Amino acid sequence: LYDKFAGEPFIPGWxxxxxxxxxxxxxxxxxxxxxxxxxxxxxxxxxxxxxxxxTFGLILIKQDAGIAWLGIHIIMIVAALVLAKHNRFAIFRKx
Length: 95
What we know:
The chain is an all-alpha fold.
């Protein structure tokens, strides 16, 4: 997949290298933060932005099945954001 992304004119090589390094830790950190209830709304918003960037990348390389899966994930994140005010287990409720 890296070679497909490297061939795209919208993504510069240096940006692809940075995204390649940041993506894994960002997914892990956001996942653990959501499981622990740390600033739930901000975590969900950051996850939505991350999944939107992944969707944009898959649109560029024409991976239709992946786009559909990420669309479902984004819908679930939006639903979780709507219901975040009812979260009883959040650690930082004011954020």
